[in-house]
UniProtKB/TrEMBL annotation:
InterPro entries per UniProt: MdtA-like_BSH
Domain Multidrug resistance protein MdtA-like barrel-sandwich hybrid: 78-258
Source organism: Cladocopium goreaui
Transmembrane segments: 19-38, 50-68, 388-408
Superkingdom per UniProt: Eukaryota
Coiled coil spans: 140-167
Protein name (database record): Inner membrane protein YiaV
């Protein structure tokens, strides 16, 4: 590849952003120098940006390819196809999909009855075989007695024949008697020989033993029993290692077979994880084990993971030679040079390599001992890539959470105009930002608001709206768990089948985008996940939300769609950014520069990102009015209606002290409904710190 072709390739590739950025910086410098009168913008200066680009390519970016090579990185897990060792009908499947199991735990059970019967039969056969040596010894004794008897018979027949021989000459016995004695003697000889042979056979059978000195019949019966016991043991199919089952379609009643080889289920081995980066062949020359590396994964947006080179795979797919009678064709090898796999070890203390899911992808950079001046550029490129990803993630994350009405504070009323800030009295809010006297953000708090009856209706009833955020401090959720002990009933939100209970420690994380975003934001912000910290197994917890079928039907009946809500929210967000820019001299809050500075400060990045995210929520006040619209919505109106129907049922059942545990964005609408439909008036408000940004000296 020529220099010009290589330059075009570099510009067209992933590095073009940095080249364009540095070129624009150079043009800005030229403009500043011209404006100050230091230079005159003649033809040479006008053409200099082109020379600058080639200078960057030749001096910086091309050497960087082998001094600090980068490439796509992937996380790989071993996948085991579970094929049973025996055939039979499945009677039980204890394994659950996407649930961690330990090595040796039962995945599924094949009907053991046929194997148990075979073990019982062969156990009896072994007992019978163990008695054979005694029977064979008795047979030898019987054979010896038979030989002795036959020998006596033979001797008597011979003596009688000898007398007949002497007497036949004197005509004392007839010729017929003599011939009869001859035949009797012959029969006696043969009978003796036969009994001797039987004795020899009995002695051989008694003496037949294995190398270990065990009777062969016993050894054979024992081996057959061991095989039957092996089949019985393997009728219970167990996990070959720590891991989880994926795509579990196996059900009781299905028949599985050892042959032909066909997997019954797929098992993901979590005991071993491999992280590999593909490095082009012309960039591999200085890569050595032990060198430092950095990994940026889409699964963990906003994080740069520290890593170390373990080694380089010694072959590519095109370099392997298979045993065959065909000569390898090398004509195409030079045209398509395949990258080599460099195996990395994640050394970052924030993330365990075993927690990375198979299939996670991203970009990795390796820092060799060469061209070290280019390492800084490579690090900045990694930071820029994660900053861009994080910027969109922050927007999508805040927007998604607003749509599901779990984290964003909501204020009733008409949507705000583009040039007017949406404000609400602090007493009516369910989420607030707390600042000190200098205006520094200290915390983001959520409210617990108690509603009491205004008249005789619902007398004695006390309803507390507990606004919550989906991701928060561990102490925050511990406080909430303590608060729930004070209520007879806690109504909680979760779009799930009626009566669903979240298991302790939270439901298994799925691979859907929302779960990935929640997990990524949880790690970046140093916070905890609500479903993992709240104890949903309490006896006083009652499910008070739509089922998936009800939710889908309500969306269809209203003509709601997430795409329409997305664009409405995006339009409001753009208007709010424009308003902030007009009030701050053209600069909006939480600019890309602020985000990049937060990411470049690893020690304080959690605090900076929490501050930026909290201010995003403050900026999005009134977003729920945009979502809800004049006619309501499934996300807010209909789900709140479902919750309050369950509330009415609990009041009718005689419950007096009730909590409604829902996202803060639901609460303004709920407060209005409690006043209108239940004649309950707002009383005492208490605040809990959901996010702590700065410790307050007054606390």
């Amino acid at each position: 590849m020529g220099l010009l072709e290589y330059a075009v390739f570099e510009i067209a590739g992933a590095r073009k952003g940095m080249i364009v950025f540095l070129t624009l910086a150079y043009i800005a410098l030229l403009f500043a120098l011209k404006s100050s009168g230091i230079i005159r913008l003649n033809l040479a200066w006008k053409l200099s940006p082109i020379a600058w680009m080639f200078f960057l390519l030749i001096v910086l970016f091309i050497p960087m390819q082998w001094g600090a090579p980068s490439g796509p990185v992937g996380v790989f897990r071993n996948v085991i196809e579970i094929v049973p060792a025996v055939s039979g009908q499945v009677v039980e499947v204890p394994a659950e999909p996407l649930t961690e199991v330990k090595q040796g735990e039962v995945l599924f059970q094949i009907d053991p009855e046929p194997f148990q019967q075979e073990v019982a039969r062969l156990s009896a056969a072994l007992v019978d075989a163990e008695q054979q040596p005694e029977l064979l010894a008795s047979a030898v004794e019987i054979a010896e007695a038979a030989v002795a008897r036959a020998e006596a018979e033979r001797e008597r027949a011979r003596q009688k024949l000898a007398r007949s021989t002497e007497l036949v000459e004197s005509a004392a016995v007839t010729q017929e008697e003599f011939e009869e004695d001859q035949r009797t003697s012959i029969v006696a000889d043969r009978a003796y020989d036969e009994n001797v042979a039987r004795l020899a056979q009995a002695r051989l059978e008694l003496a037949a033993v294995t190398a270990e000195g065990e009777n062969t019949a016993v050894a054979q019966a024992r081996e057959q029993l061991a095989r039957a016991e092996y089949d019985l043991e393997h009728a219970t199919v167990r996990a070959p290692s720590d891991g989880q089952v994926q795509q579990l379609a196996l059900r009781p009643g299905a028949r599985v077979a050892a042959l032909p080889l066909k997997g019954a289920l797929v098992f993901i081995d979590s005991s071993r994880t491999r992280v590999s980066v593909a490095v082009n062949q012309n960039q591999l020359r200085y890569v050595r084990p032990g060198q430092a590396a950095e990994v940026v994964l889409k699964y963990l947006p906003g994080m740069t993971l520290q890593a170390e080179v373990l080694g380089v795979a010694g072959v590519t797919s095109g370099g392997q030679v298979r045993s065959s009678g065909v000569i390898e064709d090398l004509s195409q090898k030079e045209l398509t040079p395949e990258p080599y796999q460099v195996v990395l070890k994640i050394t970052d203390v924030r993330v365990s390599e075993s927690d990375l899911p198979g299939g996670a992808v991203g970009t990795a950079a390796i820092y060799t001992g060469r061209v070290q001046f280019a390492h800084v550029i490579r690090r900045v490129m990694c930071m820029m890539s994660r900053a861009v990803a994080l910027r969109y993630l922050l927007f999508l994350f805040a927007l998604t959470l607003a749509l599901v009405a779990r984290m964003v504070p909501a204020v009733g009323g008409e949507p705000a105009e583009a040039d007017t800030a949406v404000e609400a009295d602090a007493e009516e809010k369910f989420l607030r930002l707390v600042r000190n006297d200098d205006g520094e953000l200290l915390s983001m708090d959520t409210a617990l608001v108690t509603f009491l009856p205004t008249g005789d209706e619902n007398a004695g009833v006390e309803v507390t709206l507990v606004g919550v955020v989906h991701i928060g401090e561990k102490q925050y959720y511990e406080q909430l768990n303590g608060e729930f002990d004070n209520f007879e009933v806690v109504l909680y939100e979760l779009v799930a089948p009626e009566g669903t209970r979240v298991p302790k420690g939270g439901a298994p994380r799925g691979g859907n985008p929302l779960s990935m975003m929640q997990g990524g934001m949880q790690r970046m912000l140093g916070l905890e996940y609500q479903l993992e910290q709240i104890d949903y197994q309490r006896e006083n917890f009652v499910h008070a939300d739509m089922s998936p079928e009800e939710f889908e039907k309500s969306m269809a009946d209203r003509g709601d769609s997430f795409l329409a809500l997305f664009f409405r929210m995006m339009g409001r967000s753009i208007a709010e950014q424009a308003r902030q820019a007009s009030q701050n001299g053209g600069r909006a809050q939480n600019s890309d520069a602020d985000l990049l500075l937060a990411l470049l400060n690893p020690e304080g990045s959690n605090k900076a990102l929490k501050k930026m995210m909290a201010e995003q929520f403050e900026d999005l006040e009134g977003a729920m009015s945009v979502i809800d619209g004049p006619d309501g919505s499934t996300l807010i109106t209909d789900r709140n209606q479902k919750a309050l129907e369950v509330l009415a049922e609990q009041i009718d059942a005689g419950k007096k002290k009730i909590a409604v545990f829902y996202g803060a964005g639901h609460m303004p609408d709920m407060a209005k409904r409690l006043a209108d439909d239940f004649q309950l008036d707002r009383g005492k408000t208490r605040w809990l710190k959901a996010w702590v940004i700065e410790e307050d000296d007054k606390d």
